[in-house]
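assembly run, all chains below
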Amino acid sequence: MSEKKPALWLRITAILIYAYIYIPILILMIFSFNTQKLNVRWEGFTFHWYAQLFSDQEVILATRNSLTIAIFSTIIATIIGTLAALALQRYRFPGYTLSESTLYIPVIIPEVVMGISLLAFFSLIKFSLGLTSITLAHIAFSIPFVALVVRARLHGFDKSIEEAAMDLGANELVTFWRVTLPTIMPGVLAGALLAFTLSLDDYVITYFTAGPGSTTLPLRIFSMVRFAVTPKVNALSTLWVLSVFILLGIGQIVQRRQTRT
Amino acid sequence: MSNLEHGGQPVVGMHLPTKKFSILRSIRENKRSQGLFLISPAILYLLVFLIIPSILVILLSFMTRGPYGNVVYRFNVDNYLRLIDSLYLRILWFSLVVAGMTTVFTILIGYPLAYYIARSPVNQRPILLFLILLPFWTNFIIRIYAWIMILRTEGLLNTFLQNLGLIHFPLDLLYTPTAVLIGMVYEFLPFMVLPLYTSLEKIELSQLEAAADLGARPFRAFWRITLPLSFPGMIAGSILVFIPAMGMFVVPDLMGGAKTILVGNLIRNQFLVARDWPFGAAASMLLLILTLFFTLFYTRRAGFGEELLV
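ok done. output:
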């Protein structure tokens, strides 16, 4: 569709829907500064819950676990997923269609089924549940998403630039590092960012593959929400929301700069 | 990194230096093996951590639970027969209803939004889309918690309505099936908006102008042109919403109270509470078959491609 200002009723509807999306999150953030412990109505402003949060050893441990898992799974999934995207976009090989469908299984399989199958698998091979099992599981569900994003980026890629580089005497490795990789880099970064947030966000698969001592932030928040609703949960949520916003903002800026050059 | 060294270069073999190791050379010169080389890490990984575990669950569903929650390796179909109990059928039906209603509501809310974005000036669209995605990149338990704060008995909505004098006693909003529906719709909305937008954005305004020239009123033009052309996006969105909604157990856990049990809760309980893995595996198979059936049914009815892949 091309440019023509949307009708007034449509604009009002859209504003209402955006309000519906944002108001719950805003309320959550505002009430993290509430002095009242029950968090029923607004009483006064305080940083008390943030101070409490930073001295909560379990939350700190859960944060460290979540970040460790997210960093390792993102690096590995990004490498494997990018290679798969290159293969699917550039080459025809035996088993192409089968490979393509295999890659998309995690996208359409219900998370709970993937979770219990990994639990059954790890228990059968007597692999003890913990940070490693969670990381292995996160890599599995991240690979397809990285591959999808990188593939979309490769779609409009002009091969003649590479051929020109080769004609000018660059070998394949140099061509890959100096021409191909920089061009697809925004896609790779976007894929990595997606893998990172998917890993940080995941509750269901983590829930089934976690062991004692490997509580992640979502698992921790779940038990906090379930058993002791205090503004501390709001404070933790606010910090999370703000860090995601900052991370995504940086991602957007980097991507814009990359596409411009 | 060694993968990159010999598999990464994408282009033809004409410029290759000669006198290299013969295996490397054969990989370099043969595009088929290059492709296989690049795809193999992903396929091997998914084979080990996805395909084999899934096969394991299929096998498990034909076993029996032992007296101590262990698995007895004796082939039988008892677990599947047990599923045809009215209790489990009711859970299944309830899950279908909740997932179906979630899908319908995400369409009702998501369609105007996607339509609005598709009609906005081109330079504003990325920002408008980004604004939809932004909250949903935060943790999904946090988003449920935000709604718990609003809906609970002493929550914001009840306080607000009481202050207005509209109600005198707090309503029981949380821990009801309605609360589960509210939570699910909020969770899955972007999965509907994005594919719908992809479909709507492709519609040429000239088609609508042609309809107008031929005397069609805006509503008729929408009904006969825009709506049918956006079906692929709606179907892709429905798949992206319906499948996770069917297997969801976290929202019912936190917002549904003890009575709201969906298939996802049933599977989780069989694995972690009742420790009847074979029965839980059979329930998972049922869920998987249902979702695959749903996906096939809908993709057959209307072809779609990139909408699913945004």
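Chain A touches chain B through 99 residues (CB under 8 Å).

Residues 57-90 of chain A form the longest helix (34 residues).

not gonna interpret more than that til we talk
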